[in-house]
Amino acid sequence: MSQMEPSISLDNKQMEIIAFRLQGQEFCVLTKIIREIRGWSPSTPVPRSPREMLGVMNLRGVVIPIIDLATKLEMMPTVPNERSAIIVAEIHTMIVGLLVDQVSDILTVKASQIQAIPEVVTSFDRGFSDGIITQENGMICFLNLAQMFRANDTEAYAA
Question: Which domain holds residue 52?
């Protein structure tokens, strides 16, 4: 699959997603890229790192970058609290911790449930999202982490 193709196909194939909240909004990613979910713990700042990088943490002997996902999405920065979580994901070949407000659920959805994002904003980078999942209690934005974090971008987070 090329980097410009969505990570999903629009059929009835079932897939597991992990849903999480950022500033009152629901987002999700495929569980197959998730290594683990951890409670919030402070990270060690790294001088001159990208704005969205909070720092690094030691994950069982491996130093990984911690990214404020809200800042990466150009939202207000996350203020971590006791409900905050770090989603440890493998993006390309790099392990990255993603700070989120809280993890909501692990769901099984059909690929056919994912709808395209309406073309209302010309400056929106469609590569960040594979679409929207509608549910009875709201909508979930399906993020494409491989597009958000291009292979050469992750080099900026290397510790």
Answer: 14-157
CA separation for the pair 37, 118 (Å, rounded) = 31
Predicted model pTM: 0.85
Query: Domain containing 25 — which CATH number?
Result: 2.40.50.180
| pLDDT computed for residue 150 by the predictor | 78
Structure-token match 């951890």, residue found: 38
Length of the chain: 159
Nearest CA-CA partner of 94 in 148, 40, 26:
148
2 part of a folded domain: no
Domain assignment present for residue 74? The answer is yes
Number of domains in the chain: 1
Both tokens of residue 88? 């440890």
Average pLDDT over residues 60-67: 94
